[in-house]
Structures are given as structure tokens and as C-alpha cells.
Amino acid sequence: MASPQPQQINIADLDIQQLADVRRQLEEELNHLTNSFAQLKQAQAKFKSCIENVAEVKPQNKGNTILVPLTNSLYVPGRLTDTEHVIVDVGTGYYVKKTRAQATKYYEEKVNYIRTNLENLQDTITKKQDNMNYLVNVMQAKLQTQTQSAKS
User: Fold this and answer.
1) Residue 79 CB: number of other CB atoms within 10 A?
2) Burial environment of residue 50 by CB neighbours within 10 A (0 to 12, 13 to 18, 19 or more)
3) How many CB atoms lie within 10 A of CB 107?
4) What local confidence, expressed as pLDDT, does residue 76 receive?
5) What is the 3-class SS of the chain, one letter each residue?
6) Per-residue confidence band for 51, with pLDDT thresholds at 50, 70 and 90
7) pLDDT at 2 over 70
8) Closest Cα to residue 33, out of 110, 132, 139, 107?
9) Residues above pLDDT 70, as percent of the chain
């Protein structure tokens, strides 16, 4: 069974209180979307950082002492013995051994995937902002009309 299509309502037909409610809802949606955008930007920056880190694992660095992250704030000294492979965090506590080329490709794919999502999200944010601007214009016109009616 097909789901019913959402009913379209002309916002010019709504009263001031209903318009204020719609505005509040749009503001909440915009806040949520912009927060999501910021989080995606952070994730993208982390993956770009991972690409740079993988590039630092070079054969000439074999045997060098490095700091190995155990958590975000805890590092321990370690010695670089295998410069051809890295351990990649693939999410939910799973780690996979990959070659440097495979790891770089993996992170580049992640960066590109997030970039596509950011572009789509930016389009959605822009549309919501346009809706908000239109809504504010309608509210201002209605308030002006009310004010002029009250003066008459």
C-alpha cells in the first residue's frame, strides 16, 4: 500500500501564531543540519589527517621511535618495524591490516564520500534557509497588514 503524499499548505494562509510555530520548527531543523555539517567537516578533517599520517610511514623511518596512540589522550612509545603495512580503524572497534596504498585509498574514499554528503547537506541547508527567508517575509507582511489595520 502506498504511503499518502504530505499535504501541501500555502503558508500565506496561516495566521501569525502558526507561522511562528513553523519558523521555530525550521530553526530547529537548521540548527540540527548545521551541527551535522560541522560534525561531517570534522570527520573529513580526521580522514585527511589519516592520509597524511599514512604518508609519514616511509621505509626510511623503519626502526625510528614513534608515539603510538592508545586513546585520544594516551600515547606510548613504540618502534616502527613494518613500514609497508598500517592498522586501519574501520569502525565499531574493528581494525584491519592494510598496505600503505590500500590505507590511503580507503581514507581517500572516506573523504570523497563525506564530501558528497557535505554537498548534499549544503544544498538542503540552503533550501531550508530560503524557506526561512520566505517565511520571515510572509510574517513581516502579515504583521504590517495587522499594524495598518489597527491604525485604521
Assistant:
1) 10
2) buried
3) 21
4) 95
5) CCCCCCCCCCHHHCCHHHHHHHHHHHHHHHHHHHHHHHHHHHHHHHHHHHHHHHHHCCHHHCCCEEEEECCCCCEEEEECCCCCEEEEEEECCEEEEEEHHHHHHHHHHHHHHHHHHHHHHHHHHHHHHHHHHHHHHHHHHHHHHHHHHHHC
6) very high
7) no
8) 132
9) 95
Backbone φ and ψ of 89, nearest 5°: -80, 110
- Dihedral of alpha carbons 96, 98, 102, 105, sign: positive
Mean pLDDT of 9-25: 86
1: pLDDT strictly greater than 60:
no
pLDDT for 116: 97
Residue 42, CA distances (Å) to 37, 94, 114, 125 in order = 9, 21, 10, 18
Alpha carbon separation from 64 to 54, 58, 60, 61, 88 (Å, rounded): 15, 10, 9, 6, 20
Closest-CA residue to 80 (of 49, 59, 53) = 59
